[in-house]
Amino acid sequence: MTIAALAAVTNRIIERSQPKRQAYLDRLQAAAESGPHRSALSCTNLVHGFAACSAADKDALSGDVVPNLAIITSYNDMLSAHQPFGRFPDIIKQAARDAGGVAQIASGVPAMCDGVTQGQKGMELSLFSRDIIAMATAVGLSHNMFDAALYLGVCDKIVPGLLIGALSFGHLPAVFVPAGPMPSGLPNSEKVRIRQLFAEGKVDRDALLEAESASYHSPGTCTFYGTANSNQMLMEFMGLHLPGSSFVNPGTEMRDALTREATRQALTITANGNAFTPVGKMIDEKALVNGVVGLHTTGGSTNHVLHLVAIARAAGIELTLEDISDIADCTPLLARVYPNGMADVNQFHAAGGLSYLIGELLREGHLHEDVQTISGFGLQHQAKEPKLKNNTIVWEDAPTQAGNEKILATIKKPFSKDGGLRMLEGNIGRAVIKISAVKAEHHVIEAPVQIFETQHGIRDAFEAGELNKDVIAVCRFQGPRANGMPELHKLTPPLGVLQDRGFKVALITDGRMSGASGKVPAAIHVTPEAVDGGGIALLRDGDIVRLDATTGELQALVDPKDWQQRTPAQADLSGNQFGMGVELLGAFRANVSAADCGASVL
User: Fold this and answer.
1) Average pLDDT over residues 153-168
2) Strand 148-152's sheet: what is its strand order?
3) Is residue 99 a part of any domain in this protein?
4) pLDDT, tens digit, for every residue of 208-247?
C-alpha cells in the first residue's frame, strides 16, 4: 500500500511537470550541443581563461580534448563547516592532473552561518542568501570553460543554492563534495539541559558559553541533525555524493581519499567520455522523490520544505507541499538523531548511517532504484560503504543490520509509521509542522493565542513571567516578504521550559524554525504570510486556536461572521528596511514567492 502510494505521488509529479520539464530538457540539450568548445574561443577569450595556470595546464586547455573541472567553493576560515574546504582545491587539482584533467577555482560563493545569526539582524539575509549563492554559482560557470563542476558546500542555504545554480547549467555534470562533521563534543542531552537552565535564569552566561564551546569545538559541521547535515543526506539520497561520504570527519585519510575519488569521478562523467551524466537529467522526478523520502525517514530539517520546492523548479519540476506531506504519510521514520533523539551524526554514521538506510529502504521498495547517480550506477550503489585499502577506496556492501537499534530501525519495526512532517490547513492559512520529536500528548493543542510581532517580544514576555499559562504564541510578520523569513530557533528553549512546567504550549509563525525544531509543536511557514493579509494577520489576543497535527487542522475557533469582518493587522516594518545589509535586498523582499512555492526570487 505504501509503495503504491509513493508511486502514485511520483506519477502525478511527472504528469504535472511534463510541459516545464520538457522545456528544461530541451534547453539542456541545446546547451550540451553548443559547448564548451574551448578551441572555438578567440585567442583573447581563451588566454583570459587560463592566464594564471601552469604551462602544462595552459597546453591542456588550449583544445577540447582534456576535461576541465570547475571548483565552486563556499570556503571561509571563520566558520567551522567551511574552514576544511581551504585545502580541498589543491587536493582536487592534483587529483585532476593525475587523472589527465585540469581543475580551476571558478568562483567562491557566500556562506553565512545561521548559528551565528540566530536572533540577530543578520538572520534576515539568511534565506535570501540561497538565491544569491545560486546566482554566484552561475557567474562562475558563465565563462563556459568547463566540462563538469565540483561543488564544495555543506551548510543551510549553501547546498540548495549551489544545486539551484548547478541546475541552471544542467548540461554539465555536477559532483558535490562534503567536508564532514566535527568530532563529537558535549552530549546533546547535556547541551539541552544547560540551555534550558540558562533560559530559566538558573545558570549564568559563562556556564552557557562553556557548554556551547564544548559542543561546537573544531573544524567541521555541527554534529546535530539540522539543515546542514540534512543537506548532506539529500545529496547522498539523490546520488550527488559518493556513497557513504557525507559524515566522514575532516582532516582524515578517508576524507582526503574521498575528495580525490570525487574528482576522478567528475572527470569520468563528462561529455569527453562514455558515461556523460549531466546534472539536469540526473535530477529528475524520481531523484527528487528519493530526496523527500530521505528527509522524512531521517526526521530532517523543515527548511527543506522550502528548498526542495525551489530545487525542483530549477529543474522544471513542480513539487508541492501536498506531495511532500503525502510522501511523509507513506515513509517510516527509521533514524533517531538529535533533535529527534540524543545521538549525533557521528554516532548515526557509526551505527550504519546513510548507506544502511538507503539499503533498508531499497529492500522494501521505499525508494526509486532506477535513477542516475554520479557513480554511474543506480541507487543501489549508494547502499555501499567506502573502505580505504592500500590508500585506495574500495566499495563494500553496507551491513543489513543496524549497529545500534536505538539510532537506526528497520522497515518492519520503525520508530514511527510516518516521517512526522505534515501539512496543516485552516482559516489561519497553510503551514507545516514537524512532530518526529514531539511527544504524542502534544500533537493536539487547543489554547488562547498571544500575539507577537517579533521573536524578542516572546522572549521578553517569558522572562517577565507573562507566559506561565496554556498559550499558543503567534509570531507574525516573519515571512519572506516582511523580513526575509528568519529562523526563530532562539524560541525553542523558553517554550520548552513552559511545556516542561505542564502548560499546553505551541507556536504559530510565518517564519521558520530550522532543522533544530524540537519538542514543542510549531506551525511554521504559514501562508499567506501576515504582510499579505493572510489569516495569521486576523488573529487577536485571546482567540482560541486548535492546532491538530493528527488531522492537519490549524483553525481559529472564531465565529465565521466575526472572522470575515476582521481587518488584517498592520505592522511597522520600517525597521526591516535597513541595517546589516538588508537594504540591499529590498528587491528580493518585493519579488519573493510564497513559502509554499519555495520562497524564491528565481
Assistant:
1) 97
2) 102-108, 68-73, 148-152, 174-177
3) yes
4) 888 888 888 899 999 989 999 999 999 999 999 999 999 9
pTM for this one?
0.95
First to last CA, the chain: 37
- Give me the phi and psi of 421, to 5 degrees please: -105, 115
Angle at 112 between CA 111 and CA 114, to 5 degrees: 140
Confidence of residue 57 (pLDDT cuts 50, 70, 90): confident
Nearest to residue 245, comparing CAs of 371, 363, 152, 339?
A: 152
95 lies in a domain? Answer: yes
Q: How many domains does the chain have?
A: 3
Element (H, E) at 505: strand 505-509
Share of the chain above pLDDT 70, in %: 98
> Would the pLDDT of 578 be above 70?
yes
Q: What is the pLDDT of residue 517?
A: 66
Backbone dihedral angles phi then psi of residue 572, each to the nearest 5 degrees: -80, 105
Q: Which residues on adjacent β-strands are paired with residue 475?
A: 452, 509
Q: Looking at the domain assignment, is residue 339 inside a domain?
A: yes
Q: What is the 3-state secondary structure (H, E, C) of 233-300?
A: HHHHHCCCCCCCCCCCCCCCHHHHHHHHHHHHHHHHCCCCCCCCCCHHHHCCHHHHHHHHHHHHHCCC
| CA angle at 337 for the pair 334 and 340, rounded to the nearest 5° | 85
Helix, strand, coil shares of the chain, percent, nearest 5, are: 45, 15, 40
Half-sphere exposure at residue 6, Cβ-oriented, CA atoms within 13 angstroms: 26
Distance between CA atoms of residues 417 and 533, nearest Å = 37
CA 369 from chain center: how many Å?
22
User: Among the listed ranges 9-23, 61-75, 95-109, which one has the minimum average pLDDT value?
Assistant: 61-75
Q: Is 23 exposed, middle or buried (0-12, 13-18, 19+ CB in 10 A)?
A: exposed
- In this predicted structure, what is the pLDDT of residue 188? 73
Residue 502, Ramachandran bin (φ over 0: left; ψ between -120 and 50: alpha; else beta)? left
Q: In whole angstroms, give the CA distance from residue 559 to residue 474.
A: 19
Which residues are CB-neighbours of 479 under 8 A, at least 6 positions away?
485, 510, 511, 526, 527, 529, 530, 531, 532, 595
Sole residue written with cell 550506477: 377
Question: Residue 563 burial (CB < 10 Å; 0-12/13-18/19+)?
Answer: middle
Note the pLDDT of residue 1: 47
Using alpha carbons, list the distances in angstroms from residue 165 to 8, 135, 313: 29, 6, 12
Rounded CA-CA distance 372/375 in Å is: 8
- Average pLDDT, rounded, for the chain: 93
CA 43 to CA 279: how far, in whole Å?
A: 30
Query: 375 in helix, strand or coil?
Result: coil
Set of cell numbers at residue 11: 506519477
Q: Are residues 322 and 434 in the same domain?
A: no
Q: Are residues 29 and 45 in the same domain?
A: no
- Tell whether 477 and 544 lie within a shared domain: yes
DSSP structure class, residue 441: G
* Domain of 389, in residue numbers: 2-34+66-183+218-397
